[in-house]
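To close the chapter, one final illustration. This time we ask the reader to focus less on the individual chains and more on the assembly as a whole: which components sit near each other, and how the overall shape emerges from the parts.
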Amino acid sequence: MPRQQLAQFHVDYLQILDENGRVDTTLEPPLPEATLWQVHRCMTLARMLDRRMHILQQQGRLGTFPSCYGQEAAGLGCVLALRQDDWLVPCYRENSALLYRGLPLHNLLLFWMGLEEGAYWPRELRVLSIPILIGSQTLHAVGLALASQIRGANEVTMVFFGDGATSEGDFHEACNLAGVYQAPVVFVCVNNQYAISVPRSQQSRSETLAQKAIAYGFPGLVVDGNDVLACYVAAQEAVERARLGRGPTLLECLTYRLGPHTTADDPRRYRSEQERQQWEARDPLKRWRIYLEQRGLWSEQQQAELERELQAEIELAVHQAEQIAAHADPLEMFDFVYAELSPDLLAQRREAAEFLAHSETLSASSVRR
Amino acid sequence: MALRNMVQALNLALRQEMAKDERVVVFGEDVARQGGVFRVTEGLLDQFGGRRVFDTPVSEAGIIGISTGLALAGMRPVCEIQFSGFMFNALHQLGLMAARYRCRSRGLFSVPMVVRAPWGGGVRALELHNESEEAVYAQMPGLKVVIPSRPRRARALLLASIRDPDPVVFLEPKRVYRSLREEVPDDEEVFPIGEAEIIRHGRHLTLITYGALLQECLQAVEQAERDFQVSIEVIDLLTIVPLDTRTIVESVQKTGRCVVVHEAPRSCGIASEIIARINEQCLLYLHAPVARVTGYDIPYPFFAREHAYLPNVPRILDAIRRTLEF
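The assembled structure is written out below.
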């Protein structure tokens, strides 16, 4: 009996807007001009915010935070395909997408200022909290999607994670469960080439990360993650599949973290300047600007106006965030552990209150001296 | 009223709450078609259908993770981990995710879910099917931990757990599943989380326990009362987190002597915490050091040796005697 081929698989790659800003008009999606500008606005805002946050961090006004520099396109392009009643489960470099969705700017600042207030945003955004434990959110996304499925609601859940997360057990379990239940979920792997210092090649021997989907029984697609149009088109297909009850999709968006992993990281220790420059040439903002310009939607003057406006927006948000931070009551750390405080926690809260009041008196008296 | 064992009592709670609240869904390994390896979820699939009662792949982190997601979306998931020892495969999802969502989002998100798991030893089961790991969850703020000891309270506490706005780890002493029957009312009955129960009143010593060992404790108490001419107060904790400190302290203030019994390892166990609270709140009422009868600080042995590991009537009796005679 000769061996037979039982199965055969393929993985596609999609790019619509290349690194020089040339668009493949046969694939170009008919996005409204207002949306094109909104994309530009959110990517620009995310990048300016990143720069501002670095300065704030150096001044000690912000904690360690992960930079989004260079990967502003992937999340935003994908999120364009969502409806307002769909769930968005972010990772921690989706600022442009979160801002597009309407997340208040001061929330992001507060979160990285080390305050839970930053994670309290309007419920109707249907955006889950920013995760810290790698890959953990993929399972929550499948749970959200199953809730939609059980209720017969026509919603989709989109979840973001990095290349490193694909090595986690949670990612495997999430994909497996989503495949088994045909859950209406879109997995978006934002492959920025590094998990801190470990390069993509050492994260997995798989030729692509998208192909992992095949093992779970659903399609995977590689996308140019610096190309908003390709991300949008790929996500729209995936969202549509999910909405029609045809199950999950895995998108692998190829991008590059141009900045450090976090402000505590020095990427010169593990990658070359030459490599970085190669990716800088593929900058998502640069090509988007060319695309807009070609369509008559961008000028130097508009850009200058936009940046002035965004700068003011950022400064206002910094002010708001610092006001909230200044009035944050440390004792509130007890108040949201459970819906109701147990007698023991109440006692611990009182203990902490007494100690804090005492140390404030002490520090006040030392100032007087 | 009908006589029911714990399996039937838990099944009744699930059945009634699922009928009442559409948001309740039940899932886990072998829970649907098979009705659970201990049959706690038997018949639910037929009654409520595959959307609300479903089997999962062998995937503990997956079970806790999707349960968290379902709860975040406003459902009331009741998931099963087939044996509580398997929860170690999912502790990150339980302790770092489910337990923290409310706190880390200042109440924007909450996780009203119940994780049920057969727990404890004494049924000659395979390795890792006998764990008493409750102290692990007690170190994960945001979780509640409930361990019923008898059918009636098991049913009433499961109802309370499903309705609780926070994640509850509900540990079921598998040794009790079918070993005793009790009157369990057909009509709905809820017992509040966070309240211990005084099973019998006494004046000379307080005996504190939970789970399957309540039976051994009651036997030991009967014998001790005869042998030593004393009356002993027995407290069944029922909830491990939050611990009902007040009931413990009031009892010890009255009796001045206390023995704590559990099958989990001794060091840093729940007994350690109870003794610490007694020290903090009523040390000067004590006539004797608080004794503990527990499992030893060793991995739970293979079942041929478990009789030597588990606290039993003679060991409990000995601790009572020593504490009375001190």
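Chain A touches chain B through 42 residues (CB under 8 Å). The longest strand of chain A covers residues 185-191. With these observations in hand, you are ready for the problems at the end of the chapter.
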